Amino acid sequence: MKNVSSSGIVELPKTDPRVKLIAAKIKKENYKPDALIEVLHTAQNAYGYLPINVLHYISKELRLPPSRVFSTVTFYHFFSLKSKGDHTCLICTGTACYVKGAQQILNEIEKEFTLKPGEVTPDNKLGLQVARCIGACGLAPAVVIDDEVQAKVKPENIASTLKAKLQSI
Amino acid sequence: MNRQELVDLIASAKEKRQKIKHKIFVCCGTSCMASDSEAVLKALKEVIIEKGLQNEVEASLSGCMGLCNQGPLVKVNPDNTIYQKITCETIKDVVQGQFINKEPLRELLLFADTRPEPFINAEEDPFFKKQTKIILKDCGNINPEDIEDYLAVDGYKALGKALLQMSPEEVISEVKHSRLRGRGGAGFPTGQKWETVYKYVNDQKYVICNGDEGDPGAFMNRSVLEGNPHCVLEGMLIAGYAIGASKGYAYIRGEYRLAIKRFETAIKHAKQKGLLGQNILGTDFSFDIEIRIGAGAFVCGEETALIASIEGKRGTPKPRPPFPAESGLWGKPTLINNVETYANIHQIILNGGDWFSEIGTAKSAGTKVFALAGKIQYSGLIEVPMGTSLREIVFDIGGGIPNDREYKAAQTGGPSGGCIPLQHLDVKLDYESLASLGSIMGSGGLIVMDDQTDMVDVARFFMEFCMDESCGKCVPCRVGTKMMHDLIQKIFEGKGTKKDLERLEELAVYVKETSLCGLGASAPNPLLSTIRYFRNEYEEKIQKA
Q: What is the largest CA-CA distance in chain B?
């Protein structure tokens, strides 16, 4: 049976290794409220996104109002309240990639997977995101698939690359 | 560690390096790694053992060598021979040619596919010949993950000099003499900034390194942090000594995983050697550095927003004054400089401010690193003296526009800057001349556009960027960028009127004048600059409507 607090939030199981990771980070930062962003990074690395009960846990541990935590999470692009999918495809839309055809790549993906930036396929297999600039302008247009930078991507090949990736695991 | 130990350490690192006849570097910057350079390095190490060359040849990773779209790059020192687009297979031929047959493989040399006679010594190629390297001097020639490599190129010698032979006032005066200006974009005199923070009396002061390089099309800071993290660390240490701070923060973009990793390693190694921590080099000076990872907000490049972010808050800017120099991080006097600014410091201390001030122009001393990208033959990282003309950069160094297209404009300063059209191609790049053309130096991103580029679309792209990245705190920026974006979009779609263009120009002035921070104040720049030079493109779209 799950522990549900008075506010209707499912409490985190203390034995979950991911919770332990966050707890260790909070302890390392001496429970200082100004370590909020650092702790959020750890939590997102562990979960892949920031579930709402994790935010409540962090707010309690750092003695910060939930509103402060929530407003900080929603301010920064890096943090996500939704699952990003088992595999992620990140399209760089920085200036260099933009002038070299990042939009065509996005169009191809939308055509093939009916995915728009920020969305995940219904089976949660693939998530699509865009980045402002990943700083790999010499490789434009650049795409990051599961943390791996793909250089000089051709729009006509993106669908097959992604399909191969989805089938690999 | 005391002074003598540092001298010995540098000497022994140098001696160790001299024993090895040839050093092969495989570029392991983000770009080359995306082209699988790590596998090439592994294959190279195997091949060296296989051929029994381990006594005269040593392979190692390095930072960016500059030509990011020709990667993976492999460089043989001291010959300065660079090979391009190397694979795990061709690396064997390189070793065979270079060390067994003693005849470099011409077909794999850098620029072999684009120049009739590629150079065996890459430094003789126009791409490198026109450059002057201060910041990137050791980038690509040392292993960024090995502190001894940095020590072997006189690393931390400047720290020793500053701490043991100079007073904080003398350090500041040297930096003032150099006429170094902030490389983050605004170009504020660095020495003057240091002096201001130095003068505030407080028990705690902070040094911050701004590595939140958010301009799309800019990757100078990433490359410096990846290629030579110790020089930034040393610059921060010297700054800490000069202003009287004991704590530093390096704020690095979350997207720059490799830069963060390399900087972490640099901090660890510096601590092990006693170059960071308590009583550095036996003096009273103690300094510690922590990394803060950015979470993806462009506005955090603004100093007060960056400070809020380090404090764990939403990264929104504050009105200035008070400036961070007086009341910054946790209300304490704080010095904020860009990565590239710190990267200059150790050489200014070693070679003197006068040496530095002789490079560049009268008002802008030193060199500037530019990230070349867009429609240009050789995109990558270059460093030129201030005052180099845009034509030299685009055509002599960058190799011109590919596919026989014509040059149309170059965007400097990203979403805060403007474009430089054909008629101003001979502009000397320094802070003042760029400002007079309605652009800014910015952090150094330089994006080249050819005659196929739609300038209204470019303006729309940057306005969309600023609209998304506006933090929402002040109305002119939050609402103004949205309204301007919608008007540009309308014109772009061919539904605009003459009145819309007038309203855009009017709004741009309001937003520029009344926004709280630099983001809003500079957001109209790309729009204004495209209207200034390419008004006809806007009018064509309006007439069609």
A: 76
Q: Does A8 reside within a domain? A: no
Residues of chain B in contact with residue A94, where contact means CB-CB under 8 angstroms, are: 216-217
Q: Does A65 touch chain B (CB under 8 A)?
A: no
CA A88 to CA A130: how far, in whole Å? 10
Say if residue A111 is in the same domain as residue A157. yes
CB contact under 8 A, B30 and A149: yes
Owning domain of residue A144: 87-168
Instruction: Please state, in angstroms and rounded to a whole number, the distance separating the CA atoms of residues B68 and B91.
Output: 18
Domain range enclosing B260: 147-357
CATH number, domain at B96? 3.40.30.10
CB contact burial B10-47 (16+ within 10 A = b; e otherwise): beebeeebeeeebbbbbbbbbbbbbbebeebbebbbeb
CATH number for the domain harbouring residue B321: 3.40.50.11540
Q: How does pLDDT run across B146-165, given as a tens digit for each residue?
A: 999 999 999 999 999 999 99
Read off the pLDDT of each residue in A121-142 and give the average, rounded to a whole number. Answer: 87
Q: How far is CA B178 from CA B47, B198, B353, in A?
A: 46, 18, 4
Q: Is residue B75 a part of any domain in this protein?
A: yes
Domain for residue A66, yes or no? Answer: yes
The whole-chain average pLDDT of chain A stands at 89
HSE at residue B49, side-chain half, CA atoms within 13 A, is 5
Query: Percentage of chain A with pLDDT > 70?
Result: 95
- Determine the pLDDT at residue B3: 83
Element (H or E) spanning B139, and its range?
Answer: none
In our burial notation (b when 16+ CB lie closer than 10 A, e otherwise), range A134-152 reads bbbbbbbbbbbbeeebbbe
Q: Report how many domains make up chain A.
A: 2
Cα(B113)–Cα(B110) distance, integer angstroms: 8
For residue B237, which of B182, B154, B160, B181 has the smallest C-alpha distance? B160
In a domain, residue A2? The reply is no
Chains A & B: contacts with CB separation below 8 Å: 136
Whether B131 and B54 have beta carbons less than 8 Å apart is answered as no
Residues 464-483 of B with CB under 8 A from A: 465, 469, 471
Residue A6 lies in a domain: no
pLDDT digits (tens, 9 = 90+) for B429-466: 999 999 999 999 988 999 999 999 999 999 999 999 99
Chain-chain contact of A37 with B312 (C-beta, under 8 angstroms): yes
Strands (E), B78-224: 81-83, 206-211
Q: What's residue A1's pLDDT? A: 44
- With CB atoms and an 8 Å threshold, state whether A142 touches B256: no
Cβ(B276)–Cβ(B1) under 8 Å? no
Q: Whole-prediction pTM value?
A: 0.93
pLDDT tens, position by position, B163-208: 999 999 999 999 999 999 999 888 999 999 999 999 999 999 999 9
Which of B27, B30, B470 to mutate to probe the A interface, most A CBs <10 Å? B30
State which of B450, B472, B488 marks the end of a domain: B450
